[in-house]
Amino acid sequence: MSAGFSFSRNHLNAKEERLQRVCEILPGCMSWTILLGMIALSIYKPLIAAVIIIAFYLYWIMRLFYLTIFLVLSYFRLSIEKKTDWMKRVCGMDNLEEYARSIKGVEGKEDLRKKISRVIHYLEVEKIRRLEKKTPRSDELYHVVIIPIAKEQREIVEPGIKSLAKSIFPTNRMLVVLALEERATTEVKRGAEEIHDSYKKCFLDLIVVPHPDGIIGEARVKGANATYAAKRAAEFFEKRNIPFENVICSCFDADTVVNPEYFAALTYYFLTCPNRKLASFQPVPVYNNNIWEAPGITRVLEVGSSFFQLVEATNPEQLVTFSSHSMSFKALVDVGYWPVDMISDDSAIFWKAFIHYDGNYRVVPMYTMLSMDAVVGNDWWDTVKKVYKQKRRWAWGVENFPIVTRAFLQNNRISLVKRFRNGFKLFEGHVSWATWSFILTIIGWLPAIFATKDYSQSVMYYSTPRIARIIFNCASISLLTSIFLSLRLLPKGREHGGFLKKLGFAMQWLLIPLTIVSLSALPALDAQTRLMFGRYMTFWVTDKKRK
Amino acid sequence: MLFLRKIFFYIFLIIYLIVCPLIILYAFGFIFKPGGTTKVTQTGLIYLATAPTGADVYLDRKQYDRKTPTIITGLLPGKYKIILHARGYRPWTHSIEVKVGKAAVLDKILLVPLKIAGDVKAEDDFRDIKFLPANGHLLLSKENTLGETYVFDCMREKIWPLVDKNSTFSEEALNNIISAGKDNSCLLITENKEKKKYLWVTIEEEKNSIKNITKLFPIEPTSVKWMPQSSQLFALQAGCINKIDAGNRAIYPEYLKKIKGFDIHESFIYALTENNTLLKIASDGGWAGKTIFNEPAIKDAVFGSSRAYDVKVCPRNCMIFVGEKGELLTNHLPYKFVDNGVLGHEFCAKDRKILIWTKDKIGVLDLRTERTGDVEFEIPPRLKWIYEKGIDIKQAFWAYDAAYIIFKDGDKVFLMESEWLDGPNVRDIVTVKTGTSVYYTEQTGNIYYLDAESGELKSVKIIPDKELIPLSFAETKIAKEIKEVINVGGI
Q: Is A63 exposed, middle or buried (0-12, 13-18, 19+ CB in 10 A)?
């Protein structure tokens, strides 16, 4: 275990500070080098630029197909678990041996999806049975749900609380903590109190923990609020002699709404996870709370985020926590809770645990969904601005890179392969986020625009657009697949939209070239540039609105 | 899932590593030709685009399966004979050389209709046609008086009298027209009973306004130039430039003295003095100006051969000087390009080329300076005479983005390619009324002329309108027709 490393960019010695700054500059520098370098090449050496662009387009289409395959597989996996009775599985885990035998085979005909689900379930149960003769009993497990609130009013928070109250998992073993910022408005505070009065009796307890403003060492970040609340939750469990090993902690956004099976599913994944203390649990986030009220650009982006998580779920070795997620409360306490001076608390807690446990920490993908709000503003332009800010905040996760790099350089207990692979993925992920869209939509055409006489009279000048056209036509296969799956992910129910509305939703995918540049790549480049110049972002709470 | 992911990863990686170099090689023009001496060969391509689109393509007498615009790839280096044919148009033939890794680009091919029948635009029997290129208007005269002169708007295709029949200027005979830059105004120099008049005319639809500003021209000017977007003129009279404000009817005499020629460009006066110095002065007098050219060793050699020059300042740092004997000079070395005989010129800003014509020749002066490949060796401006069989060339125009030249030789109007590989490919278009001018505008792609027999104003569309969706032709019918046309043409 790496107890000595401080997961923060503050309070560093001179040498560490220099290394920190160098690593902060690297991602932005690389992104700008790629973009400006390609522009310069397109002007001065268009032939070389065209060759690089063709190679890039081919790489991009290969990767797109590769990701599309796993998107489909992951979606299929998600769909086969839609009707799973998770609580039944949880209860079955209390008698592991017998239960394993009972699920090995069934009599009579079985639906293919059910069969696949059962087989996967059996393999998971068998695996844990071989590793641990006995798992914790389901009636010994508790959940703590921490919901940080800064500006969210009752109408935003309450649906989430309601959904928790409807959980199939016994709610008398759920502690709900409303982590309320002291600087929140009176209205927000009143809303939290009203929720407390209305729903306290539904759970083991529902407590409101006011987070004092201006604690030394803390920035105005969600992680500080969540950490303060988690410490109060720890005191709660200690008072009642509930061991932290039996507590699963979930940190939810204020607008998170779960399905009734969610906590049962979480409990199941917790029980079937070997070394469950050394894992986080990541559901698939969708943004269906207000999807029909959100404009097209928002919908396309939010669905894209869900797809990203679906694809990432197929590669658990390199999965990182995002947004609302869960983990062992014991692990949370051991690693020192969420960072109190970082904006990207959701991903930072994973890296913090990864480093703390010398690389023996992972994320378990959960094939169940939870729903949040899509960003909606007062009008279209207001929505665009808010979406931009939200994506920039997400892209601010690049702040993890320098800290993780410093940790990796110091920690020899993590294998070199793991350090390199994770470090590279973190770096490459952010750089490609900021650059690919620009290359695909704008830079790819520059050699033709700035063509010198020599280049415009070469075979390459005429071949490149033809090859690009063929590649983009092939990409339409992925686009159609995405449109199809995005429609499948939409909330059901006639009141949510007839055929025309769904058709409109599908057509909004044609906005992708515009949206990925302006509301995905540009915010990412913005965030990396700020980090590069040391202009650290203050936290901007995403404005949640329901119409 | 992880295992599956790894398998797919390596499969895609292998596919990428194999496919990517092959595609890049293909993009460079490499093809795989089994059975030959070298199996992998680098090829070139030909890009063909015609106006109108949809022409059949024949490559070395074999019909290619696509119509224009098209790219023919995978061509081994060498010469190819290309025939293009579209229904109702004359076949177009050329030999094209394909080089390794290079594209032979022929993107400005004009197909000429088999039968050219001009559209009648104005039915009367006109005797002369003059044009105001600034605003796309023509002046058509039935008689040589303003009362029998009409204005024709090429864009809107409307015609109206230049002056009222009852106007005091109706008996004036039109001598010369000096057009403003982009205004609807022009200066008419007329004569009646041996008295010259200078009339400032603003062309407005259906009703033109005319002001007599003769008093502002005490001496007949050698040349008059407009200040764009204003009512100010600069007239070269007896070696002095006088500034004339036609709107306020004021003269500012001897604005510049001892001048051999001048032009106005972007609010500056470029004046060539009698001691062969070239000056640049602000037209509003607000700036003293500067000397552009005053090399004692060479200025007399450059400009000394003529007492007067027609000066034209063009965009992109180009100045053209035409002397009394028709010698042509520019501000690029070696300065003098033609010793005598130049009757007119037209500058193409896009390609920096000057179209020059004499009585019997048409040439192109290419001012583009290039470096030869990787070697830092500059290629100077070069003059190429592309047509030397003229008899009485009076006018010439750039057409179709300077890919073609339209010129009038005697009473015939011809169309010719400005750059060619195996001959200029001159095609006759129309025969016009003897002694009249023609007018070509790139805006409409039409040639305007007076019919040789009826004197009617007619137009011929040279540049077809751009099609939104190219139409395809019925193939079987075309195949038959082509054979006949080809046989008749002796191609």
A: middle
User: Contact A55/B105, CB-based, under 8 Å?
Assistant: no
**Cβ B1–A77 below 8 Å, yes or no?**
yes
pTM of the entire predicted model: 0.80
* B8:A69 CB<8 A: yes
Question: Most A CBs within 10 Å: which of B28, B31, B46, B372, as the mutation test of the A interface?
Answer: B28
Whole-number Å distance between alpha carbons of B375 and A452: 16
- The domain in which residue B49 lies consists of 43-112
Count of CB pairs separated by less than 8 Å, A with B: 79
Q: Does residue A385 lie within any of the structural domains? A: no
The per-residue pLDDT for B475 is: 28
Could you report the per-residue pLDDT of A341-366, keeping only the tens digit for each? 899 989 999 999 999 999 999 999 99
Domain of residue A123 covers 81-131
Q: Is residue A13 scored above 50 in pLDDT? A: yes
- Structural domain total, chain B: 1
Q: Centre a 10 Å sphere on the Cβ of residue A416 and count the other Cβ atoms it contains.
A: 9
A493-524 residue pLDDT tens: 545 556 776 777 777 777 788 888 999 999 99
- Choose the closest CB to B27 out of A63, A317, A463: A463
Q: Which residue has the higher pLDDT, B166 or A333?
A: A333
Beta bridge partner(s), residue B336: B329
**DSSP result, A158-204:** HHHHHHHHT-SS-GGGEEEEEEEETTS-HHHHHHHHHHHHHHGGGSS
What tokens were used for B225? 């130039």
**Mean per-residue pLDDT, B425-449:** 90
Smallest Cα distance from A367 to chain B, Å:
13
Contact indicator for B137, B203 with CB cutoff of 8 Å:
yes
Q: Is any Cβ of chain B less than 8 angstroms from the Cβ of A453?
A: yes
**CB of A73 less than 8 A from some CB of B:** yes
Cβ within 8 Å, pair A70-B105? no
For residue B45, list chain A residues with Cβ-Cβ distance below 8 A: 459, 462
Across the beta sheet with B56-59, what order do the strands follow? B62-67, B56-59, B78-85, B92-98
- The answer to whether residue A217 sits within a structural domain is no
What is the pLDDT, as a whole number, of residue B373? 56
Instruction: Scan residues 356-375 of B and list those with Cβ closer than 8 Å to A.
Output: 370
**Where residue B64 sits, what CATH number does that domain have?**
2.60.40.1120
Contact across the interface for A463 and B370, Cβ inside 8 Å: no
How many separate domains does chain A show? 1
- What ipTM describes this predicted complex? 0.85
